[in-house]
Specification:
- The structure is a single chain.
- The protein has helices at about 5-20, 25-50, 70-100, 110-120.
- With about 150 residues, the chain is mainly alpha-helical.
- The longest helix has about 30 residues, at about 70-100.
- The protein is elongated.
């Protein structure tokens, strides 16, 4: 089956809008991004099948039947998207109840790792720790109190 240009453009718009919303910090927007991305995937899978008669034995010849595999995959994708939507909705609701907003905050550990990576980037080549981990004592913060031997 040759894909229709309308389907291709629609899949592209759904993917673009879904990924854009997934990159936001608000859990509500992340939820909408997952829904749009799921619908885009469903439409993309639908374009992969061939059109034809219902895949019921005896109604049409084997060549005239539509492929039932994409339809089964779409049903599975709908269930997975529904589960992800329910999980994200519960997480957004719980976050709203606990903090009063649904904004995803930076993790303190992530900030520390970024800071260590920036410090490692400032070191000259050949200076550093074990296995490519540069910085003080191989980049391990638990060993910051230990000094390197001369």
């Amino acid at each position: 089956m040759t894909p229709n240009l309308t389907y291709v453009v629609t899949v592209g718009v759904l993917f673009a809008a879904g990924v854009t919303l997934l990159l936001e910090r608000s859990l509500t927007r992340i939820l909408l991004g997952v829904i749009l991305l799921g619908n885009g995937v469903n439409l993309l899978i639908l374009m992969g099948g061939q059109s034809g008669a219902a895949p019921i034995a005896g109604l049409a010849g084997q060549e005239g039947m539509s492929d039932p595999l994409p339809q089964a995959m779409i049903l599975t994708a709908i269930v997975i998207t529904l589960g992800m939507t329910a999980f994200l909705l519960a997480m957004a609701s719980r976050t709203w109840l606990l903090t009063g907003h649904d904004e995803v905050q930076d993790d303190v550990e992530d900030r520390r790792i970024v800071r260590l990576a920036e410090q490692d980037a400032d070191l000259p080549d050949g200076v550093g720790g074990v296995n490519g981990l540069h910085g003080v004592n191989g980049g391990d913060p638990r060993r910051d109190h230990v000094t390197e031997p001369p």
